[in-house]
Amino acid sequence: MLRDVTVDIPDGQITAIIGPSGCGKTTLLKSLNRLIDLYEDVKIEGKILIDGVNIYDPSVDLLTLRKKVGFLSQKPFPLPMSIYDNIAFGPRIHGMNREQLLRQVRELEKQIAPQSPAPELEPPAARKTKDAEMGMLIESYLRLAGLWDEVKDRLHGPASRLSIGQQQRLALARALAVDPEVILADEPTSALDPISAKLIEKQFRLLKKSFSIVVVTHILRQARRIADYVIFLYLGELVEHGPAEQVFASPRDERTKAYISGEIS
Amino acid sequence: MIASISIVVAVLVAILLVITLRGASSLSLSMLIETPKGGYYLGKGGGIANAIVGSLYLSLGATILAFLLSLPIAFALQKEFTGRHLANVTRLALDILWGTPSIVYGAFGFVLMITLGLHASLLGGIIALTLLMLPIMTRSMEEVIRMIPPELKETSYALGATRIETTFRVVFKQALPGIMTGILLAFGRGIGDAASILFTAGYTDYIPRSLLDPVASLPLAVFFQVATPIPEVQQRAYASALILLVIVLVVSVASRLLGRRFSRNIVR
Questions:
Q1: Is B33 among the domain residues?
Q2: What are the Cα distances from residue B8, in Å, to B167, B181, B188, B252?
Q3: What is the ipTM of this complex?
Q4: How do residues A198-214 score in pLDDT, each as one tens digit?
Q5: Are the beta carbons of B156 and A89 separated by less than 8 Å?
Q6: Among A197, B124, B221, B236, which is 20 to 30 Å from B149 by CA?
């Protein structure tokens, strides 16, 4: 149960939603890509605007919305297929052709790694399939998620054999591969070991140049490490929000103070 | 616990031993490749190729038909496609059908055939067996599909996949080993069933040449041959039982191996 949540989520930053268990963090997050629609007995009132469009408007195309807003779950779930197919799943269901794939790879390079452009391909007319473009796309996103070096020799092996930390980075690569603008992450490190968790945090800091990231976390120290903007929820209510330094250094509300100082958790 | 395990194992070993010891002596190449000489009930010559081929025809035909029906039903019963109430009523109906004795299917199939103007035939047997297999296959597949973690589907939806794409590209793949198990479970039940095909498939000394010919089967070969007064023919019943047993064993071992192969990509 969430009520009276009105907040501006800033572009190109990491926004952390913090608060004690059961305060509605995940509910708020899943409202942002309408995954909440999948649950029974959910009643939704109000508006959520992304790029000025109310995503709960009946005219909104759910699939386009979910393409634009990527999602990372608490526990990674590899799709029952190979590593390669996991990443290719999104581009395939969105029916991307080779020009679109190639454009996406080039865009990504410009933003993330301008110093190492991908190799030129022979002209598309000489080839029948889009395997080459798809291969480039998959490599780019696995690199972006910091997983390429670990899996490049077993791309066609089952994704289920990866360690859980690798699976989470695969999930990140898979979410990024549909070219979203926003990434939602629901306690993305809570199932991971400290080293894998650190890797994910590192990727997030890298990614915020190109994506807006909203992360739910119950680890206060994690929020301090990565967040630029903080939203504090308490019992379904938006208590406080603002730039991270301000919320952590000088919280205005008593409840925020109590939570940050560790009196409530 | 040890006692209960030993009882189970002892029963299995006893069945295998009795059938093998009694059947092996009459088991020969001609048993496998020849049709009976002098009638299946009294004849001592020839083989039971009619029953082997007949049983395979019947159960393969029924397995294919039942699969074509149960896979869509199993998917349709999921909450993405059917309301909880209707799905539960359907499950209950399937459970009752699962528990229905196979002789009832036989009797029902017989009435159905008379209504349609069919004689005891391969087609009639396949229809009766399909009815018998349908609830087994549907329920076991449906159970596996329902157990798929909702988060896996969420993952697919979150990438912008539709219900159909999620069902066919993700749920189906994840459920594939379970679907295979369901098929083989139903096949095993079907190939061994005597009562449902007693009236519907009939029995004959020949290998059927059309869907409308009567057809022999291994369970009924056992049934008729055990009942004869002639000791040699009784021996042949055990050989038939042994062959049936071997087929079922091969299928269950194969299903284990296939299951392992198909579960390569499965997320646990």
A1: no
A2: 39, 22, 19, 17
A3: 0.87
A4: 988 988 998 888 889 99
A5: yes
A6: A197
